[in-house]
Design goal:
The protein is mainly alpha-helical. It has a single domain, classed as Orthogonal Bundle (Farnesyl Diphosphate Synthase), CATH 1.10.600. It contains 15 helices and two strands.
């Protein structure tokens, strides 16, 4: 079984905890609907790639860490699509959770996925107690306040947006958790891996801005033009697509340069470059 197939099994096993007669059936269905079928799984792929580059010393723990990050990401999408935020009707090419199940279930499903992420991680990490606290702290700091994805979402509620903080918190924080958790789960010091994750996260945010301006709903599986509709900051809309693509290219280069030394560094550099190109709409990939 390859790494991503094993990851999907880990994710499925985490969700199967809701297969309990005491769990309301609509909530249980909404939880699976929120996570499957998969998106691109960019964050867990990154986390597992770093874990592998660092020796993959604890595969079960690396899988659990990656699964917790993906569950938190899926929870953020469920909440982000709600009428009180983006009011998005489509996610991953199908009706968003609040459209399919109602706003109340969507809110509760997002909450349940957050709790499930920590339950799954803690259950596996208990076998490596010396790493448990470190991994919980890495993941928790990426989702809350003051510097996690909750804080990033909250910037959209402010009259004046700090664009750097907005990008770092809404997108970069979970990418940083991915690289740091991947390293920590393999017994490496996670701190030097934070900058790589933040740089890749900022690259992804810029690519997302570009996709929102010039991709199609069919290609990205969600509505386009949402930043303009919701009056959100968007570098491609404010500075133009070509400058945004150039900035993205520079950021990718900086991210790769910042990568710490590890046994699989060369292979990881190649993989990061290939994955970063996929961030963009197909028509623009050769530019980056």
């Amino acid at each position: 079984m390859d790494a991503m197939a094993l990851f999907e099994k880990t994710l499925t096993d985490a969700l199967r905890k809701s297969d309990d007669p005491g769990c309301p059936p609509t909530l249980r269905t909404a939880l699976f609907y929120s996570v499957f079928p998969s998106g691109h799984r960019i964050r867990p792929k990154l986390s597992l790639a770093v874990a592998k580059a660092c020796g993959f010393a604890n595969p079960d723990l690396s899988m659990a860490s990656a699964a917790s990050i993906e569950l938190l990401h899926c929870a953020s999408l469920v909440h982000d699509d709600l009428p009180s935020f983006d009011n998005a009707a489509i996610r991953r090419g199908k009706p968003s959770v609040h459209v399919a199940f109602g706003e109340q279930i969507a809110l509760l499903a997002g909450d349940a996925l957050i709790v499930m992420a920590f339950d799954s991680l803690a259950t596996t990490a208990a076998r490596k107690p010396e790493l448990l606290a470190q991994l919980i702290q890495i993941v928790a700091s990426s989702v809350g306040a003051p510097r996690g994805i909750v804080a990033g979402q909250a910037w959209e509620c402010e009259r004046k947006v700090n664009l750097a903080n907005y990008h770092q918190e809404k997108t970069g924080a979970l990418f940083a958790a991915s690289t740091m958790a991947g390293a920590a789960s393999s017994g490496f010091d996670p701190a030097p891996w934070k900058n790589l994750g933040m740089a890749i996260g900022e690259s992804y945010q810029i690519a997302d801005d570009i996709r929102d301006v010039c991709s199609t709903e069919e290609e990205i599986g969600k509505p386009i033009g949402q930043d303009e509709l919701n009056n959100r900051p968007n570098i491609a809309r404010e500075q133009g697509v070509a400058p945004a693509v150039r900035y993205l290219r520079d950021l990718i280069g900086e991210a790769i340069e910042s990568m710490p030394e590890c046994p699989g560094r060369n292979e990881l550099c190649v993989q990061m470059h290939e994955e970063a190109r996929r961030f963009l709409p197909k028509a623009l990939r050769e530019v980056a």
